[in-house]
Amino acid sequence: MFTTNEYFDGKVKSIAFENNNKAATVGVMASGDYVFKTDSKENMTIISGTMTVILPGATRTTFNAGQSFDVPANSSFDVTVSSDTAYLCVYG
Length: 92
Known about the structure:
The protein has 92 residues and is an all-beta fold. It has a single domain (3-91), classed as Sandwich (Jelly Rolls), CATH 2.60.120. The protein has no helices and ten strands. The chain has strands at 3-7, 12-19, 22-29, 32-37, 42-48, 50-54, 61-64, 68-71, 76-81, 85-91. The strands form two sheets. Strands 1-2-3-10-5-8 form a six-stranded antiparallel sheet, with no helix packed on it. The protein has a four-stranded antiparallel sheet with strand order 4-9-6-7, with no helix packed on it. A hairpin with a 4-residue loop joins strand 1 (3-7) and strand 2 (12-19). It is globular, with a radius of gyration of 12 Å. The two termini are 19 Å apart.
């Protein structure tokens, strides 16, 4: 079954599902600045739009549609999107 999630006063919305026995979400972010915390390792893929990210111990990097990045477990990362951006996040 699917679970819907909403964060940052509705500016970030996602649908959670199972993908090859791993939890995943697909979602959209409205333009803005966000800080996300992780419990498990995450792999983020940009589906459309652009996402500028500051990962732990790294400099600001911009990712475009088709690109992905990994986020370590038990950390946080900063995200800036300048226009609506869609993403896929696979956990674990």
